[in-house]
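4.2 Preliminary Data

To establish feasibility before requesting continued support, the project team ran the inverse folding procedure on a target of 383 residues. The structure was first converted into the token representation described in Section 3, and no sequence information of any kind was made available to the design step. The complete token record follows.
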């Protein structure tokens, strides 16, 4: 879920967000959307096409359109043709990203947005992002108690130039939408991230499980860089708390061994997936592979782990990335057709000419369980 453009000295070495540098302007890609199309309009169109590719009825697309219109607010009325801020949310700098996840044959669509002030800036974006979060209180199933208990840790009087905060919603068949939030542990500076996340996990009652995870990682090459902390905005006894560790210098075997702390991990599976999809098992990777560790209340270790395999810039285009990933899925006994249909539906241009697929995520089937596979794509608004 990170963009790949270089940043100015002192910025985040793996992501780029913030004011548009002169040497990397955002240029519109394709001609699907007429002048004046808003962020909201583009997101509704993309979500509808992706839902159709997942076999969902048209009524669900209408429900999603109404939901986004209601919860995204005024910021999403900004025209896509005049971007003034490169967002963290998507690989092309767009203010939203689409993803789909499959497990046991069921598909879930997620839309993740990054709220921007007018005019955008680190402090103004931070203020609006927390206000946006509070605005969804009272929606069915939403519980903000955990994230609001962390607000002082993830706010700064002087947020870094490349600060971000993302809001997600997962559309699930037969269930209320699940809202999520993704927090920047580097809000006050990259050197503080480990302390910030440690304090947050302690407040959430997950301090022991997190410390065990860090100690285990330190024993196998050292913990990766903390990329994000995410929370499901639901009742604490059901919510997952997720920490994303990025691995710029670790090889596939080390990444796999670090994931062994998680319940249900299949030894060797992450290493095999990373090598099968990217074609190599050792750095340098074009962008760091990432492991997402998920925690639940009452657990003494992560409840699970997923590997995020970078597609950009590992592959020259989305077509080659798709073909390599589809071959991996077939080898694992997973039908790649839903994945390829989703990727095609999200695109406005031929896949041979685009680089919008940011990550694929994979968790092999634990004993008695189902494998999980996810695909993350930028909307391709910008070239």
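Position-by-position output of the design step:
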């Amino acid at each position: 879920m990170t963009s790949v453009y270089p940043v100015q000295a002192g910025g985040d070495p793996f992501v780029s967000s913030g004011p548009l540098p002169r040497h990397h302007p955002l240029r519109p890609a394709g001609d699907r959307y007429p002048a004046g199309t808003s962020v909201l309009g583009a997101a509704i169109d993309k979500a509808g096409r992706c839902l159709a590719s997942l076999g969902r009825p048209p009524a669900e697309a209408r429900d999603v359109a109404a939901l986004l219109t209601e919860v995204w607010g005024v910021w999403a009325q900004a025209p896509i043709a005049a971007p003034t801020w490169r967002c963290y949310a998507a690989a092309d700098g767009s203010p939203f990203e689409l993803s789909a996840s499959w497990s046991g044959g069921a598909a879930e669509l997620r839309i993740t947005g990054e709220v921007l002030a007018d005019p955008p800036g680190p402090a103004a974006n931070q203020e609006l992002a927390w206000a946006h979060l509070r605005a969804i209180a009272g929606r069915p199933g939403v519980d903000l108690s955990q994230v609001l208990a962390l607000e002082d840790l993830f706010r700064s009087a002087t947020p870094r130039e490349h600060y971000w905060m993302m809001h997600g919603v997962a559309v699930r068949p037969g269930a209320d939408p699940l809202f999520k939030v993704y927090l920047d542990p580097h809000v006050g500076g990259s050197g503080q991230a480990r302390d910030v996340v440690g304090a947050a996990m302690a407040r959430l009652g997950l301090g022991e499980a997190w410390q065990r995870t860090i100690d285990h990682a330190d024993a196998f090459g050292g913990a990766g860089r903390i990329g994000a902390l995410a929370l499901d905005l639901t009742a604490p006894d059901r919510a997952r708390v997720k920490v994303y560790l990025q691995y710029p210098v670790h090889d596939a075997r080390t990444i796999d061994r670090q994931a062994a702390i998680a319940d249900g991990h299949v030894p060797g599976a992450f290493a095999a997936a990373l090598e099968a999809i990217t074609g190599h098992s050792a750095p340098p990777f074009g962008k760091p592979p990432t492991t997402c560790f998920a925690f639940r209340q009452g657990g003494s270790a992560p409840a699970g782990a997923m590997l995020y395999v970078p597609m950009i810039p590992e592959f020259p285009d989305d077509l080659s990335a798709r073909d390599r990933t589809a071959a991996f899925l077939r080898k694992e006994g997973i039908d790649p057709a839903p994945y390829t249909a989703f990727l095609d539906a999200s695109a406005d241009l031929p896949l041979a000419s685009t680089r919008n697929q940011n990550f694929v995520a994979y968790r092999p089937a634990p004993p008695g369980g189902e494998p999980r596979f996810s695909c993350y794509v930028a909307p391709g608004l910008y070239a």
